[in-house]
Sequence to fold (128 residues):
Amino acid sequence: MGDSSGSVRRLGGGQLICRHCGLLQDQVQTLSHELVLLEPDMRVLAHEVPAGRRWIELVDGRVTVYGVCPPDPFQRCRIEHALACPGQQLPDLWPWLTSLRQENARKAERESQRLPLPPGGEPLADAG
Ligand SMILES: [Zn+2]
Fold:
């Protein structure tokens, strides 16, 4: 029984040249039969990588996101080439920090526009 779809030729993986930087990246199949592009020859301590971006290798060569939290201190994982690619913008690795920075930007903007309060009064308070 062959694969009749013919849409995916390199299920076993391999290396591809990144179209953004020209460096090699490993194309690896995930547990959910998708392909992910990983940084070659690099195994990083999992706790140094944001959760959800820790790819661990299975015995059959596929990879899956490491779900142990907190991570084992000695567990190593692979990372997507996109995180190391000099030709791509770094994705939002820490969404809660991005939210905090955006909120602080709004807060700083409000602070810079705040006029001094009149004595004993609140700004824009409707007397009524
Ligand atoms: Zn690249």
